[in-house]
Amino acid sequence: MVHTSVIGCGNMGSALVTGLSKAGGHTIVACDLDPDALAAVADYADETTDDISRAGEADVVFVAVKPDIVEAVLGELDLSADQTLVTIAAGVPTAFVEARTDARVVRIMPNLAAETRDMAAAATGDLTDEVRVLLDDVGEFAEIEESQMDIATAVNGSGPAFVFYFIKAMTEAGVAGGLDHEEAQTLAAQTFKGAAETVLQDDRSADELIDAVCSPNGTTIEGMEVLWDSGADQAMTDAVAAAERRSKELSADFDDE
To answer: GO CC annotation: what is one (predicted)?
Structure first.
């Protein structure tokens, strides 16, 4: 059992609280100054509080606040070398956090799928066994270098929004063809979910899997020809590059301090 706390119960923080609660086996303190945010996670946390010092008593402390208030939150935390601080704020370098706490520091970029325990996360820093257990309980994670955090932020941090965009487009295509919205959305979302699981569990590459679905002169190859001609892959590359660029800009703001 890991005694953990989550400071900042916005979208990402609440997703972590919910996912860890569903995993079971941990004590969770949720901390936020907004009573509505605390009320939203009250059923999943062992304790809710607006007292940061109370949250600072946990073995593992997640700081899931906006980048511009990270420094203020760190200033209110008095952590020891026996504790671990896990920072989630996009663009905030590990060194910036390490200079402001005595705790071990781990920087992660998770995503909202932590709520359903399907999170993809990138992690760097002093990963303890406790942190590994927590991350494993809400999904999958990859250990990367600090220098790779900007691209990881773009791929798995921003990535869910890009996937939602394509699910919406596929749903709307289904509706245009005569399905009702709920039917179309279920089919589109489950198709993305199933395809993702196939990629994770199958040894074949994405290109090989595409070939496996495409029968000669069949329906899929007709659709793929449209996608190949559309430049959709370049649009995705450009979207990831834009998100990475913004992450680097945020990091530069902290490098100047």
So the answer is: cytoplasm
pTM of the model: 0.88
Q: What are phi and psi of 65, to 5 degrees?
A: -115, 170
Instruction: Using DSSP bridges, classify how beta strands 119-125 and 47-49 pair: parallel, antiparallel or unpaired.
Output: unpaired
DSSP state of 68: G
Look up the CATH number of domain 3-150. 3.40.50.720
Statement: residue 255 has pLDDT above 80: no
CATH number among 1.10.3730.10, 3.40.50.300, 2.60.40.10, 3.40.50.970, domain 159-240: 1.10.3730.10
Which residues are documented as binding site? Answer: 7-12, 64-67
Alpha-carbon distances, residue 50 vs 8, 14, 221 (angstroms): 10, 15, 55
Q: DSSP letter string over 109-171? A: E--GGGGGT-EEEEEEE---HHHHHHHHHTEEEEE--GGGHHHHIIIIISHHHHHHHHHHHHH
**Annotated binding-site members for NADP(+):** 7-12, 64-67
Helices (H) and strands (E) in the chain, counts: 12, 8
